[in-house]
């Protein structure tokens, strides 16, 4: 199925914004543009629902219903139960809270597996548990390719491992990890699985129920929504871990790992993400239940991205003084492309800005994988990242600009 890029872009007010005219956005891994349904819901909430939700009066009832709608619809699209979806201020914060729950639940001498491919959010909070007597085992990437080998994980697993944490997709390597295979390995060893989906979810809302991890985390502000962290915690594990919220909220699964009340307006606005996915499904003739519609949209997004990504990879691969981080095959990765240059990535990003290209340079909180691959941390990388609303014309503009600055 060919994604109708014109229809897609019409759903994002940023593309009609005069101040952004003539600029191509290639820093989507840091946060995507917000779709119109999310903006509309957020504005409506602040205009007419900005009261304490779940009360007996009309504005309060509607406020609570919109919050519930966001949870229900996103859960249905991901193939999980409604109460298995929680909201928090950010994925970093959500992971930290989960780490505290595991700290209380685990015994000294038991182990957690982390990787050196992760953004720090799904690595640092778990590593800190070493101070509590928890053994931290590191699943290391190949320093040449940046890839994780499931066989290396298998060698780390034994009866002491309680949790395996890894990214669905690294925010600098870009490779898509085989979540189903890795989850099966961990479960066979008796361990739970936590997947950081922050860098993958913008390229298609994950089918968490089908893939099988016990925890899946991603950020709404990278999936066309407001600045909230979204986390799926499967019911069996969520009930097993100690409550991290107010004691009177301990019996409600989606509140157990939210110590403070969530941002009501932003939670309600997250239903706009579901509105957007449904609008794409209807426009492209994708029918079925919410999970089927989401899967069809996911496939169309990835197909469009892959088509645009391969020319970029081909363009930078083999250039003198340019190292492409991660796979050169577009089907094996997300369109998050990090380039190690012979000068600071931030300088290259500044040069691109003069050509109307919005990109980023630095380490992107991914110091561990970049260090493991021998990247000069004083220079970092130039990162070029896009999503399904990116057009072929914008990619062509990027390629021309790269010719000028490289």
From TrEMBL:
Pfam family, one: Aminotran_5
Record domain Aminotransferase class V: where: 25-398
Keyword set, alphabetical order: Aminotransferase, Pyridoxal phosphate, Transferase
GO MF annotation list: transaminase activity
Matches recorded under PANTHER family: CYSTEINE DESULFURASE, PYRIDOXAL PHOSPHATE (PLP)-DEPENDENT ASPARTATE AMINOTRANSFERASE SUPERFAMILY
Protein name: Aminotransferase class V-fold PLP-dependent enzyme
């Amino acid at each position: 199925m060919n994604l109708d890029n014109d229809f897609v872009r019409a759903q994002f007010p940023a593309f009609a914004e005069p101040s952004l005219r003539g600029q191509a956005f290639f820093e989507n891994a840091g946060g995507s543009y917000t779709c119109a349904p999310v903006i509309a819901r957020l504005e409506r909430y602040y205009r007419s629902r900005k009261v304490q939700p779940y009360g007996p009066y009309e504005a309060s009832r509607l406020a609570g219903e919109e919050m519930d709608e966001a949870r229900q619809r996103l859960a249905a699209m991901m193939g999980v139960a409604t109460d298995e979806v929680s909201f928090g201020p950010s994925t970093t914060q959500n992971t930290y809270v989960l780490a505290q729950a595991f700290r209380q639940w685990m015994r000294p001498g038991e182990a957690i597996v982390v990787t050196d491919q992760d953004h720090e959010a799904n690595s640092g909070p778990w590593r800190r548990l070493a101070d509590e007597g928890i053994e931290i085992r590191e699943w290391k990437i190949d320093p040449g390719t940046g890839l994780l080998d499931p066989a290396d994980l298998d060698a780390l697993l034994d009866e002491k491992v309680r949790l395996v944490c890894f990214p669905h997709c690294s925010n600098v390597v870009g490779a898509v990890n085989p979540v189903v295979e890795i989850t099966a390995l961990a479960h066979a060893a008796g361990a739970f699985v936590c997947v950081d989906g922050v860098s993958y979810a913008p390229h298609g809302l994950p089918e968490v129920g089908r893939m099988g991890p016990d925890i899946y985390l991603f950020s709404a502000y990278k999936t066309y929504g407001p600045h909230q962290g979204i986390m799926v915690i499967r019911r069996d594990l969520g009930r097993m871990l100690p409550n991290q919220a107010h004691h009177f909220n301990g019996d409600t699964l989606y509140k157990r790992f939210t110590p403070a009340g969530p941002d009501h307006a932003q939670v309600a606005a997250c239903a706009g993400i579901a509105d957007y996915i449904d609008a794409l499904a209807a426009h492209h003739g994708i029918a079925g239940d919410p999970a089927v519609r989401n899967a069809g949209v996911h496939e169309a997004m990835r197909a469009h991205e892959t088509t645009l990504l391969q020319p970029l990879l081909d363009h930078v691969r083999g250039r003198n003084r340019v190292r492409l981080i991660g796979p050169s095959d577009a089907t094996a990765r997300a369109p998050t492309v990090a380039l190690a240059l012979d000068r600071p990535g931030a300088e290259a990003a500044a040069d691109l800005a003069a050509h109307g290209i919005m990109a980023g340079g630095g380490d992107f909180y991914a110091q561990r994988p970049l260090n493991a691959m021998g990247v000069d941390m004083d220079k970092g990388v130039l990162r070029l990242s896009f999503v399904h609303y990116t057009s072929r014309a914008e990619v062509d503009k990027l390629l021309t600009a790269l010719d000028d600055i490289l």
